[in-house]
């Protein structure tokens, strides 16, 4: 694949920098002057977080400055403007299946750009009803959709990735609070998994927030860098896909945990029923040690508190406070999303903890970190009243446990469904 129009230095700086969020564009239509000879704008000082991206985008012809010598980095970008910019990505291939530009609300100056953006696969008219609402500001959720659709044209594996994350845990506050629309979930997940876009300081992705010219300048560079990278090279995306398909990222974060050898599984369990495929027990009623409640597991997230850089789990900033290690003897964090169907009218927190005998898969305690609270992670505390008694019959919350690697502490993690399927894994290092 040919390289996108961006310098390697710029791409590296953008991908490793501390930029939060990403979104918008303006000054693309007839209201702006020709690109200035210099890319130094009086409202974009060298200290501006996006100054290098803005200068690069202008130099490459994606943007134009205004006649008064400004760039207006905080101005919102309309859909017509963004479509025109995407149409200028000369190294973006055309989609194999071409859709027609049947929008009836495109300004004359943007018609060609919108048509090219459609041909390149960024915009799918079939997802609209004849109108793009071209003059309105582009929101981040729709931006994520356009950009990830473009990636599927560059590499079909991205199309598979968009499908794989359908049932994943998205590391954004809107997911945990139930405010992330299913129509945008997959695009948001892939945008986050590739580092193309990110959450803001308030931990929200901001699907309804508009995008700015400065943000779009950054996005152009990020898109170019992501488009040159295979989906499988992004650990974060691999985790999101694994969770979407199986319910856990265990195989990526703790690959030494493999299927438990027969001699280490309870002899009362038929070994032919044992699997290391977590999807086989995901969302199934499990056999419990006590009869206070039925129990299902929706997702199991493993996080190493010791990993750094690209090896760090995409879920680290969701559950674990930066620089705080509270695990025991080299253990990893183990976070499990439980669904209970409580049978007793007075089941308490301790009785919930007695349902399973596992330090890794334990509904007794929930995450209590600052970051988990900021992401809105549901905890069992929300469902408890005095003396730790549950106030609802069907709580869904996250538990907090430990995945051990110390030989003195390791034991098989064995979970059996009421249908007779057993999931069992153990550290095999």
Could you characterize the architecture of this molecule?
The protein has 429 residues and is of the alpha+beta class. It has 14 helices and seven strands. The protein has helices spanning 8-16, 51-59, 79-87, 111-119, 140-154, 156-164, 173-176, 182-193, 213-227, 235-246, 250-253, 316-319, 349-353, 370-374; strands spanning 257-259, 274-275, 293-303, 332-342, 396-403, 413-416, 422-427. The strands form two sheets. Strands 1, 2, 6 and 7 form a four-stranded mixed sheet that branches. A three-stranded antiparallel sheet has the order 3-4-5, with no helix packed on it. The longest helix has 15 residues, at 140-154.
Gap from first CA to last CA: 39 Å
If you average the pLDDT, what whole number results? 90
Query: What would you call the shape?
Result: elongated
What is the count of β-strands?
7
Helix content: 25-40%
Order of helices and strands: HHHHHHHHHHHEEEHEHHEEE
Structural class: alpha+beta
Strand content: 5-15%
The major sheet is characterized as: 4 strands, mixed
Number of helices: 14
Spatial extent as radius of gyration: 25 Å
Low-confidence stretches: 1-38
């Amino acid at each position: 694949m040919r390289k996108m129009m961006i310098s390697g230095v710029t791409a590296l700086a953008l991908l490793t920098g501390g930029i939060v969020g990403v979104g918008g564009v303006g000054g693309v239509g007839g209201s702006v002057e020709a690109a200035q000879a210099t890319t130094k704008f009086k409202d974009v000082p060298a200290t501006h977080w996006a100054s290098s991206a803005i200068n690069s985008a202008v130099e490459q012809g994606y943007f134009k400055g205004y006649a008064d010598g400004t760039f207006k980095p905080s101005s919102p970008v309309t859909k017509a403007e963004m479509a025109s910019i995407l149409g200028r990505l000369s190294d973006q291939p055309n989609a194999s299946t071409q859709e027609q530009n049947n929008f009836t609300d495109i300004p004359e100056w943007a018609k060609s750009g919108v048509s090219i953006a459609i041909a390149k696969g960024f915009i799918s008219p079939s997802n609209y009803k004849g109108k793009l609402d071209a003059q309105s500001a582009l929101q981040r959720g729709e931006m994520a959709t356009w950009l990830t659709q473009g990636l599927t044209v560059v590499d079909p594996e991205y199309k598979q990735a968009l499908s794989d994350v359908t049932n994943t845990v998205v590391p954004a506050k809107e997911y945990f609070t139930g405010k992330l629309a299913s129509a945008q979930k997959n695009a948001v997940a892939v945008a986050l998994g590739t580092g193309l876009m990110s959450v803001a300081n308030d931990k929200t992705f901001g699907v309804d927030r508009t995008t700015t010219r400065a943000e779009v300048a950054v996005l152009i560079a990020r898109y170019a860098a992501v488009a040159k990278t295979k989906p499988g090279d992004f650990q974060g995306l691999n985790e999101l896909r694994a969770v979407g398909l199986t319910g856990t990222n265990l195989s990526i974060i703790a690959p030494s945990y493999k299927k438990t050898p027969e001699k280490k599984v309870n002899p009362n369990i038929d070994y032919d029923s044992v699997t290391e495929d977590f999807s086989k027990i995901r969302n199934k009623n499990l056999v419990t040690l006590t009869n206070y409640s039925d129990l299902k597991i929706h997702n199991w997230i493993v996080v190493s508190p010791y990993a750094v850089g690209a090896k760090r789990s995409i879920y680290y900033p969701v559950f674990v406070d930066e620089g705080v290690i509270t695990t025991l003897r080299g253990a990893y964090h183990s976070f499990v999303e439980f669904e209970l169907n409580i049978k007793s009218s007075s089941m308490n927190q301790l009785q919930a903890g007695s349902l399973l005998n596992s330090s890794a898969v334990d509904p007794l305690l929930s995450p209590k970190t600052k970051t988990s609270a900021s992401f809105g992670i549901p905890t069992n505390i929300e469902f408890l009243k005095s003396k730790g008694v549950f106030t609802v019959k069907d709580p869904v919350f996250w538990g907090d446990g430990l995945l051990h690697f110390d030989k003195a502490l390791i034991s098989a993690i064995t979970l059996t469904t009421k249908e007779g399927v057993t999931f069992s894994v153990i550290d095999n290092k």
